[in-house]
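Retro notes (design track)

What went well: tokenization of the new backbones is finally stable.
What didn't: we kept losing track of which sequence belonged to which structure.
Fix going forward: every design gets posted as structure first, then sequence, in one message. First example under the new rule, 342 residues:
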């Protein structure tokens, strides 16, 4: 589609370890449209970070890391780019914000110098104009006294300010896609709200698309347009924020939503029982089967594919979606009526 900045098709990232193959990402399809904020949500260990690092080609260079599928950025497959070409794309066209700002900031250099480096490297700008750009970026992300701050080192910044500094760095070359991996998880709630406001404002002002990786559904509700729910290396549901919160279709998504506190309610929260499967040793069929309250025989035999749920762009990978929709390569053909409905 013309308006897709990023289209990921059948992405698989498998790690070959001494204990066997870890299928951290195992057939992920997703897309990010121009100017939208897409959330990738799911429990710890479901493959969110590995997905984003595979897209940025930060994983895949070692012989133990096997990445396959297609990662189309403006229609061009990043998996066929050389490392040199990727270095041009990273930071300039698409940039990444990590959970820990110190992953991106070097303690030995002034914050301004590190931001200014981006236009120097990617746009061959001179030092003076790049320094000015660094100050502009620090202003844009709401750092007070930006001239003074630009000359300081990361340890002189508070945690929230460092993360703003990283956002400033990611913006320095006006990327059209930012991949943010838990950018607010390490921050206290007030600073978290400020960083979320900042990201929303950036998207509104500049049209930069954001892929927001988080396990926090509050962040999703507040910031995002669409959501992809990930479970054990696969996307199990995808839809708008309203689809996911008001009409979740996959039992895993329903579990996530039910485990959220409701304002004013004293009801006990219902956590999802059990643990995700071992990625070394995945079960046949649906990966959620052992935790699913609706499990049927077919779920233990065949993997469900993503199919439209109540409308075309709200999709879920669950045998409860009905036989006629779920005719992916997994279906046996015999009819299995769900015991329970939503
Ligand atoms: N280099 C590696 N070698 C082997 N396994 C790995 C490697 N990197 C990640 N994994 C495994 O891949 C799985 C997915 O990890 P990932 O970091 O993507 O999870 P996540 O969804 O980002 O979780 P969190 O919310 O905790 O950040 C995990 O089981 C992890 O142990
Ligand atoms: Mg992660």
């Amino acid at each position: 589609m013309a308006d897709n900045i990023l289209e990921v098709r059948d992405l698989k990232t498998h790690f070959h370890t001494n204990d066997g193959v870890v299928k951290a990402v195992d057939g992920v399809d997703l897309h990010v449209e121009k100017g939208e904020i897409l959330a990738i949500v799911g429990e710890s260990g479901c493959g969110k970070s590995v997905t984003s690092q595979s897209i940025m080609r930060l994983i895949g260079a070692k012989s133990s890391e096997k990445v396959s599928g297609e990662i189309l950025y403006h229609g061009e497959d990043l998996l066929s780019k050389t490392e040199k070409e990727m270095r041009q794309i990273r930071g300039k066209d698409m940039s990444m914000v990590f959970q820990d700002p110190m992953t991106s900031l070097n303690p030995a250099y002034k914050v301004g110098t590190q931001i200014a480096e981006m236009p120097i490297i990617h746009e061959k700008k001179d030092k003076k104009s790049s320094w000015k750009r660094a100050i502009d970026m620090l202003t844009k992300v709401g750092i007070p006294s930006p001239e003074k701050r630009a000359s300081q080192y990361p340890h002189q910044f508070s945690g929230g300010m460092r993360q703003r500094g990283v956002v400033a760095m990611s913006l320095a070359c006006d990327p059209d896609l930012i991949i943010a991996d838990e950018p607010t998880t390490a921050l206290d709630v007030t600073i978290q709200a400020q960083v979320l406001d900042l990201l929303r404002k950036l998207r509104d002002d500049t049209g930069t698309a954001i892929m927001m990786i988080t396990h926090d559904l509050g962040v999703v509700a507040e910031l995002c347009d669409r959501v992809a729910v990930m479970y054990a290396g696969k996307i199990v549901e995808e839809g708008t924020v309203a689809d996911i919160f008001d009409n979740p279709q996959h039992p895993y998504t329903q579990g996530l939503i039910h485990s959220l506190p409701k304002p004013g309610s004293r009801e006990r929260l219902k956590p999802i029982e059990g643990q995700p499967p071992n990625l070394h040793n995945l079960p046949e069929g649906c990966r959620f089967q052992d935790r699913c309250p609706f499990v049927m025989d077919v779920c233990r035999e065949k993997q469900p594919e993503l199919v439209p749920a109540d409308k075309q762009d709200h999709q879920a990978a669950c045998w409860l979606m009905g036989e006629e929709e779920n005719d992916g390569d997994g279906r046996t053909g015999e009819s299995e009526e769900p015991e329970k409905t939503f």
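Added context from the reviewer: The chain has two domains: 1-93+175-274+306-318, 101-174.
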